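Hello K.,

You asked for the raw outputs rather than the summary table, so here they are, unedited. I folded two proteins back to back in the same session to keep the settings identical. This is the first:
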Amino acid sequence: MLPVSRTRYAARARRHGARATLALAVLLALPGLGACRDSPGDSVLIRIATGSPTAVYHAFGESLAAILNRELPNVHAEVMVTAASAENIRLLGAGEAELGFTQADVLPADPGPDPPVVAVARVYDDLLHLVTSADSPVHTLTDLQGRRVSVGAPGSGTEITVRRLLTVAGLDGVQVQRERLGLDDSVAALQAGQIDAFFFSGGLPVRAVAQFARDTPTRIVDLGEWTAPLRQGNPEVYVPRDIPRSVYGIDPVTTVANPNYLVVRADLPEAVVREVTRLLMERRSELAAAHPAAGRMSPRAAIATSPLPLHPGAASWYRASKP
């Protein structure tokens, strides 16, 4: 038995040694850290742009930040509360965040040969919710005509998707009284009778919608018929997806879905992004405990990030893992 034990010990030692070497490479590659590697107290900030505190991006980001802080030496990851997708892309492009989440439909159809923001992974699909009270006269999308509706916060992916949806439904212009509220304010406004309905695009389940449905008789409006018209102008993005009864305990519907990506500044070092990608994929069960949407990731699906290219560090990890 002794030779087997020594073999196993040697294999473990090689694995630990390889990880230590890679961790050191990550540390030296991080911006500014190479110059202060003799000062072990210094740390590098990785800011993760998320969204509303009660939405999926934030829960996912909090869990990811905890993993990065625990497993990458001298890295300090923190979560930023934002309006979500569009603002996240702006923050990364301006160098005010390192990682962020975005819906695919927020991205330019042609990001160009040298985009400032690239992809780490496709993480899950967002489903568009049109939420109203159960006794509301709003049963279809076209019933929104003349009504007060929250279309999402300025800078959110929800607002972009809803703008396109209302246009294809002939409800653009002044057909709908639009309020530009975030998720939490939308819920509060609907509860107070200040709006007739609200939109929100998020992974299942959206915590704030689930809480509203527990407290108030609720209807989610079926939007399935609008997927095809939306796809005519955006063929690579929108797909129909179901919200089953089991999610919110109310009547099931079909709605419009589009992919979500974890994106990164293109100038982040390859070794750093490779480690972020590894932890994103290897800690899926931990991320799923923070929100079920994170558990739907897989290396095979993660590489489908059109129109954005993968960051070289992410591509390197996927090639090595053969998704």
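The second followed immediately with the same parameters:
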Amino acid sequence: MSSDVVVVGAGIVGASVAYHAARAGAAVTLVDAGRPGAGVTADSFAWIGSSGVHAGPAGALRASATDEYHRLEAELPGLPITWSGSLSWGTTEEVPEAGPGQEIVDAATVAALEPTLLEPPEWAVWAPGDGAIDPVGVTERLVEGARAHGARIRPDTPIIAVRRDTQGRVAGVETAAELLSGATVVLAAGVATAELGTSAGVRVPVGPSPATLFRFRAPAGLIRGVVNNQHFDLRQVAADRLIAAADSPERTLAAVRSTFRGAADVELLSTSVRGRPMPADGVPIVGPAAELPGLYVAVMHPAVTLAAAVGRLVAREVVDGAVEPMLAGCRLDRFQAPTRR
């Protein structure tokens, strides 16, 4: 594939692809209908973890997540990442076996890790290498990095369609005002990827999966790391702010107040529901489209967790012509019907 690359979608995945491709020497244009990081990325819980056992086609990709963010942190100093570790309990009735990067800790250790817990559980899974990011802050930093390496950034530019040339290859993407030409187009536009693929005659089976995020006003230092139980995923994002990924605002607020000492005055500030992109089989879709040479797809859940790794690997494939084994189980062609003889 040519190193003349148009990346559609400036969420965290598209921003990562643009940064890594530009850093690799490609002439990159990053285009988005809105502002960088303003879509579903903005309301991500943004837990970064590689611990535990990760089976399945994207297992190796998921296992690389924290290492890839440490690499990115070294490349882009000041990246807003907090390496706080995570505690999980109560999601199963039996004590699980600790996976790679995890340990099973007792109530005394849990209380030392999260001192405001009213009733520390008898056991929890402690993953000290886990962390969390400011997803918008990281996206903006990736865009700045891409621009520093020569990328053109085109926000507030809706894409109408992907265009072919007369030889049946990608020609670029059409906006209301112009054709942005490119020998390679990377679709990293979340749920909009399906419609854009259709415009080029390529089926990308991805649809919206509701994801709810609650924001709370809370006392400073209420919790130290990422906390996960049967009621919520919870973390502190500022001195007086918590965010939670959960289902019900009323039940989540009640659970927070009853779980932590000093949480009686925690107050719900806002609720957001976004349609995160979910491939039909739940596995990331990352790779070229056989039907249209020059078209590449990068759409997935969990996008924030995988963005650092995926950006580097996609850039290796579209700029350097590599074939990355870690992406082997994530290809678009797995959805094609087998040929009958």
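The chain has two domains: 4-66+134-205+280-335, 86-128+209-275.

Happy to rerun anything if the numbers look odd on your end.

Regards,
P.
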